[in-house]
Structure formats: C-alpha cells, structure tokens
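To: structure subgroup
Subject: Chain for Friday's discussion

All,

I'm putting the inputs and outputs inline so they're searchable in the archive.
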Amino acid sequence: MIVKLWASAARLAEQTPPTRNRTIDLLRALSILVVVLGHWLMAAPWMQDGVARDGHLLVAAPWFRWLTWLAQVMPVFFFVGGFSNGVTWDAARRDGRGYAEWLDARMRRLMLPVTGLIGFWAVAWVIASVAGVSPAKITIASRIAMLPTWFLAVYFAVVMLAPVMREAWRRFGTATIVVPLLLAALGDVAFFAWDARGAGWLNYLFVWLGVHQLGFVWLDRHWRSPRQQWALVLCGAICLLVMTRAGPWPVSLVGVPGEDVSNTTPPHLPLLALAAIQFGVVRLAEPALARLLERRTPWTATVLTNGMIMTVFLWHSTVMMLAFGAALLLGGLGLQSEPASGAWWLARIPWLGVFGLGLAVFVALLARFERPAPAASPAAGAVRQVAGSALACGGIAALVLTGLGGEGAVAGDLCALVLPFAGARLAGYSGR
C-alpha cells in the first residue's frame, strides 16, 4: 500500500511544472502536521483516584505556553492560502473563467470532507446517547473532535473575498494589509478597553484577512530584500514580546482551558505579530527550501503528504478522542500518569503511535474524497454559492463553540448539524 502510494506521488511529482512554487506546498503540509502534533500533545486526560479527569498540557505545565510561539502555525496556513488563491484567481482571469466557476473549484474540495466529518459525529452523537454516555462527555468529545473545523469556517469567508482582495491588492498595495491591521487593533481596543467583547469577534475576519494578504505580497515578489524580511522578523518579535509582557494579551498563542482571554478566540494582535515573524522567516528560508525541493525524495514526500493533508487535519482529533474513549472504557488504560510528569511524557510516545495508526486507517478510507470528481453540471451562481457557504460557516461555527449533546440543546444541535449540509446543497457542492 505504502509503495503504491509513493509510486503514485512520484509520478505526480515528475509532472510538476517548473513554474510551481514548491515551497508553498511544503509549508502547507508542514503547518498542518505541526497542528496535528500539537493537538495530540496538549490533550491530556488522566485517571486520578479512579476518576477520569480532563487535563491539558498548557495547564499542567505553564512553561509550555512559551513554546506555542513555535507551535502556532495558522498564520503560515493563511498566507500560503493567499498565495494559492491568488495563483488560481489569476489563472481563472487569463482563461476567461468567472467568479462562480473559480469559487466552485476552490470550495468543493474543502466543503465535502467537512460534511463527512460532521455526518460522522451526528451518528456518533446518536449512538453515544442511546448507549447512555453522559451529555457532558459527548459535548467535550465532539467539541474537541470538531475543533479543527474552526479555521475552515473562517477560511471559507476569506476564500469568498479573495478575488476582491486580490484586485484591491493590485490597486492599493500595502494599504490592503494596513487597513485590516488597523481594524484588528480597533477590535482589540473595543475588546479590552471598552469591554465590548462582541466587537472583538470581528477580528476573525480582520486578522486572518490581513494575514491572507501576505500571500499576494509573496506571489508578486514584493518585499524581496533580506533587509525587509529581517525587519519583519525583528519588529514582529519585539511587538510580540511587548504585547504579551506589558499588555493585556496572554503569553500562550493558543487557547488555554480556564483562562479568561485567549489570543485565538477571538484572534488578537499577537497573532499578527507572529505572522510578521513567520512570513519573514519563510521568505528568508525560501531559497534553501527551493533547493531542497528540487531533489526527488523531498518533493515526492511533499506531494504525497499534500494529497491527504485535509483528511489528516480534519480527522486527527476524532482519532484521538476515539482512542481516549476506548482507554477509559478499559479502566483508564495508559492514562494513569499525571500530565507533564516524566512518566506522562514516556507514555506519550506509544500514544502518538496509537494516534498515528488510527489516523492511517481514516486516511486510507477517506483521502480519496479530497479529490472530488469534476462536477457533471455547471457551477451554481455566485449568489447561491456565497449564501450556501455562509450557511455552512454558521453551522460549523456553532458546532465548534458548543459541540453536541448539551443538556436541553437537542433543537440547537440539530440546527447546527443541518446547516452545513443545507449550505453545501444550496451552493451546489453536493449532489452534482
């Protein structure tokens, strides 16, 4: 099986056009793999006096919060996405294809795997409820399992705006980055100084749209000077240190259970500082990465990984929750050590192996759905696609925020489950 997959990836790798930026593909794969490893390390349930306890590495070992400055790689994914969206939109314009056809091609590959994950958890919710699993446990498991979809709800909105922002970049340049940055700063002022926390949630759009614009900077080969790139790294690092040490923002760049403020929910200015650091580092490393990817083995491995990366991302938390659930049914097998202790770290090695084997099963079964067959009919109109995608985003966001199985929340759960499927159907991403 592995030999066959490698051979298939090698054939695709040999067909790579010379104009393709291979570094973009490598960064997409690496950023998702870092997210997967981070989630597998941070979730830390354990048994204490025969009772299952929820645990989290960032709570058990606060020093680990500093390492989230390396582990938080969502900015990389968003500016890599900006590069890819810019490439495909430019190609669509050259080929005379309109917005609706372009959007259909971008969204179908993302939407179909997400609805598969949601459908799985709808069935799991029913089975667990009938089996007598407590609503609280169902809620925790479903929220953690569907946590990877939070960024897709945001990314869908960014993709829908990408052509407009691409044209704005052509006309206004750096202003299309500065304006979202200023709006994000205003959102943080509202959040922290004016206690208008609802306004801060607009930063989901402002922060990630600003980071997405960096992809256009890269695509058009702006800010190519190493001096400019080092300036981004140094300014970003200084801003990040000042904000987290002297400002109201926490040190951790991912959410910490029990903390009142998270830098990611909603996104805050430290993520923009991190984006500057990461963008500068990546651009500085680009020549070396490009040389590496000219070699057959690294590039084939990159092609192979990208062919299944969305499946890996969407299902890695589900695999983890199923494995932990099985361990709890077996009396807490492998969960006897206190999080962050020496014994816990040793036990984490076989746990990572269990997660990896479980994920391999899901990848073998589901990775082919990342490459949906060409639509048999023309793309739906732009209005239908945007409206359907917005419905799907609302359902996904609700599922991530509340999970399934809450006491007295059956109607709300059903509504949240239906919205992604209804949205996909309205947009024409299913049943065509």
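Points worth raising on Friday:
The radius of gyration is 22 Å.
The longest helix spans residues 99-130.

D.
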